[in-house]
């Protein structure tokens, strides 16, 4: 039996004290080692993350905050970490995400090992966007444990989220906003894994996350963030007021350990675009 490949996850986080413990614990449990990019956090993100140093978190680096959301800056910082890494496989995720391999594999590292054995060099994910129940005005706990059960399958194109790739493959995600990989030879693993995306935790968190966000001029010139640039409070409220049709859109897990996903009705738009 071949030894398991080494697997690195790079996470960029800004003011994610509510999510970061769940994020890091989940990645480490799935077989990742992690480098955290603290993007100028003003809350307890960094101090919470420090609990994981030596326990799967390799180090914490700093990416200064310049006043606007710049995915371009984030991807370049992540690429710099990839270039100094010695891991066999690399990946990137956000603090509100969790990659899982069940039910096909026990852990993500097992899926990566299978991909390596099949001479593949990248892995795609199905994005499941998890939402709190309608009516939740605020998230009252200091930390989120990932217990939302309602989700929709977001897939405007396929394959769309190639988040794991061989470090020596020559593939890059810089030109595609971190979603797709481009290079001379892309050999996609035939099994799609699942990305649980805990996109918002309440009405208040959705408004705080998206309404004041300013995107960098570089990102906008690249044509990125088209579905997030003009989010309106009314569009967020429509979901939390229960005014949106849920049939064939929203599905529910039995519990957080349930991995029986409904993928028959992919959505091409996010919930704030359903009105």
Notes on the structure:
This protein has 275 residues and is α/β, with parallel strands linked by helices. It has a single domain, classed as Spore Coat Polysaccharide Biosynthesis Protein SpsA, Chain A, CATH 3.90.550. 22% of the residues lie in helices and 21% in strands. The chain has seven helices and ten strands. Strands 1, 2, 3, 4, 5, 6, 7, 8, 9 and 10 form a ten-stranded mixed β-sheet that branches. Strand 1, helix 1 and strand 2 (33-38) form a beta-alpha-beta unit. The radius of gyration is 18 Å and the shape is globular.
Which tags fit this structure?
10-stranded mixed β-sheet; 7 helices; Spore Coat Polysaccharide Biosynthesis Protein SpsA, Chain A; 275 residues; 10 strands; alpha/beta
Brief rundown of the structure:
The protein has 275 residues and is α/β, with parallel strands linked by helices. Helix content is 22%, strand content 21%. The chain has one domain: Spore Coat Polysaccharide Biosynthesis Protein SpsA, Chain A (Alpha-Beta Complex).
Structural class: alpha/beta
Helix content: 10-25%
Distance N to C terminus: 52 Å
State the helix count. 7
- How many domains? The number is 1
The CATH topology assignment is Spore Coat Polysaccharide Biosynthesis Protein SpsA, Chain A
Unreliable runs, pLDDT <50, ≥5 residues? none
Shape: globular
Radius of gyration: 18 Å
CATH class: Alpha Beta
Mean pLDDT metric:
96
User: In total, how many beta strands?
Assistant: 10
Task: Profile the largest sheet.
Answer: 10 strands, mixed
Q: Beta-strand percentage?
A: 15-25%
| CATH architectural arrangement | Alpha-Beta Complex
Series of secondary-structure elements, N-terminal to C-terminal:
EHEHEHEEHEEEEHHHE
